Amino acid sequence: MQPITRRIMLGSMMAASAASIAGLPRPARAAEFSLKYANNLPVTHPLNLRAKEAADRVAAETGGRVEIRIFPNNQLGGDTDMLAQVRSGGITFFTPSALVIATLVPVAAINAVGFAFSDYGQVWAAMDGKLGEHVRAAIAQTGLHAFERMWDNGFRQMTSSAGPINSAQDMDGLKIRVPVSPLSIAMFKGLSASPVSLQFSEVYSSLQTRIVDAQENPLPIIQVAKLYEVQKYCSLSNHVWDGFWFIANGRAWDALPADVQSVVATAINEAGMRQREDVKALNETVQADLQSKGLAFNHPAPDSFREKLRQSGFYGEWKERFGDEAWGLLEGAVGKLA
């Protein structure tokens, strides 16, 4: 049997999407509601493939009354620009990562607490449950509407040229590149590493010249950026999970008739559930590809990392920042942290 590769999977999805588009009846008149959706990912990413599927479904089930136009790959600006546009109503929908929307809704970053989630079972129990409901309520207070199902951006993993990271002790003094995020910087400092904030465009050359010895990103990013060329080890730490909130301008959403809201919400939420499975399958094929390119994998247990973060005061600090209610909902899904 031919192995399922990332290219085959995405190609099949694109073909299916194209086939569904070709089979749709063209509306006899212009759409009653024309809605704009913008994001920062390539058109071939599972997020955009499933979003197009949702848009086609909405057009079909509303008889052409509703048109969702998709603008992928930062066509309408960067994350900060798109967040501003969805707030003003310049675009109807946007899918920011939790860390992006956290600049507006600080509690939205709670899913990125270090070593909180050990697997997807815990992630979805929290984000489809009471913690997600709590964050959605906070988002609603800013005039935005967040749909019930988050879309997946994957777990972040650590790579290194120095050796495998098996426990928190291996983090001591490790020069590791991290994004410009207070939460990420605080986490790695709490692990006694030496985090260096760099733009992503600088990561490859910084690893190559040993300005830093390690970095952390989801596996597909490690693959696309060819970081396996300058790294030897990949520790599947699952130290941070991040996802996309599918949000809408509140005024535009409230202006839609109830029957249209029902169709759109169902299509978006169900497409998000399928996108989660796409990303999970994609990560599995990416790992196999990276292994074939010489990257060595290991599976560190989270216990020593969590203990180090407790001792350093990281969990206590961020419990205070997020508040007792949100932190209690997080621990209800993952167990005691602070």
TrEMBL record:
This is ABC transporter substrate-binding protein. It comes from Inquilinus limosus. It holds the Pfam family DctP. PANTHER family: PTHR33376, SIALIC ACID-BINDING PERIPLASMIC PROTEIN SIAP. GO terms for biological process: transmembrane transport. GO terms for cellular component: outer membrane-bounded periplasmic space. Belongs to the bacterial solute-binding protein 7 family. Residues 1-30 form the signal peptide. The keyword Signal applies. Keywords: Signal, Transport. The keyword Signal applies. InterPro entries: DctP_fam, TAT_signal, TRAP_DctP, TRAP_DctP_sf. PROSITE patterns: TAT. Its main location: other. It is found in: Cell envelope.
